# Entry
Amino acid sequence: MDFGTINQRLNQNKYETMEDFKEDVMLVFRNCRQFNPPGTFPYVCANNVEAVFVKEWTRATEKRLEWGEKRSLQGIISQLIKEDMWVSIPPLSTPPLIVYTLSSFVFRVPVDPVLLQIPTYFDVIPKKDARDLSTIKQKLDTDKYDSADALKADIDLMIHNATLFNGVDSEVGQVAVAVKKRFYELLSISKSKKRKEAETNGQPTKKLKLK
# Structure
């Protein structure tokens, strides 16, 4: 086995799974070490190239969001950060008291207990559980989410933190509820748009999925 043969097999779609491909690559290294004594140039080269391959293989097979889904979620989070929204505070007042609130003002950056004069914040919300839109966006941009559900869990945690510390009926609590509602609205709109595009363009040709 050699890399030229492997490349030819790839071009001819001879590999049914990624593991089949990996096995052929590893076979190249094993054959080289079996034929060449330890310490020889080919033997050393095999070890060095294998180390690079293993490193890149780990990165390539790491579970992460698909590019299109990532781009869609980036658009939703960016829109959520910059959007203004109307919220009613309290929700059951008669007539309702309408307050114009910038959602990103509340959730744009990590909570600073000193700046906001809420010294007990991290007594209620552990630092490891603290979430905000900029942190979520950074995690999304740097491929820290392996699924849309993982990102949604962080959004839900951010809202939970806000309502837990401030109360559901507080101004921050009401904004939190509005932000969560808007996030899932945008998510639904995005999914609906993708379905319509798929119906309009037809289903793409199914390709071999290496996994």
